[in-house]
Amino acid sequence: MADQNKLKETLLNTVLSLNNNPSSGKVYFKADTELVDGFITRSQIRQFHFTVDEPKQLGGTDTAPNPVEYVLAALGTCQEIVYKAYATVLDIPLDAVKVSVRGSLDLRGLFGVDENVKAGFDEIIYETVLVSSAEQSKLQKLINIVEKNCPVLDTLTRAVSVKGSVKINNVAAAA
Fold first, then answer.
1. pTM given for the model
2. Which end of the chain is least crowded, N or C, by CB within 10 Å?
């Protein structure tokens, strides 16, 4: 189990460092992925490796979650981490945080059956359950902070610039 005091000290030191040197706040994350077999892909993030696949009804072998399921998991886990971080810094007791996330998408968009249907989620719904002995007012403050500062929630709820390029045999493809 994580040491609360050590966690709080680490988080507060990070905030202090950001206040003293705002330019240090710009960080970059990277993921490298590769199609391995069928719809199975291998992903590497830092020293971590994981697999992505599709369910059998979408042509995969159902050996791992699919990309959109990872999006849902990213939202839930980010919420949980941000709750824990802010609760720790604000000395709000938090015995448990659980998030259930579900999303709906229309496969006609993915398969190009209807060009008016988007390929991604139409709607994502999450429910967060907090277990805490803290006063309701403190918990409401915590909820407001997390809803404002969760990076994955923010990414999913606003327009984000996404740029890409394609190379064919290591040569840039025409746009």
1. 0.91
2. N
Instruction: Report CA torsion sign: 11, 14, 16, 18.
Output: negative
Cα(60)–Cα(10) distance, integer angstroms: 42
**Adjacent-strand bridge partners of 32:** 44
Side-chain-side CA neighbours of residue 122 (13 Å): 10
Looking at beta carbons, which pairs linking 121-128 to residues 24 or more positions away fall under 8 Å? 121/68, 121/71, 124/72, 124/75, 124/156, 125/101, 126/75, 126/76, 126/79, 126/99, 126/100, 126/101, 126/102, 127/99, 127/100, 128/79, 128/83, 128/97, 128/98, 128/99
Q: How far apart are CA 174 and CA 131, in angstroms?
A: 54
Is 1 a residue whose pLDDT tops 70?
no
Cα distance between residue 146 and residue 85, in whole Å: 9
CA distance 55 to 107: 13
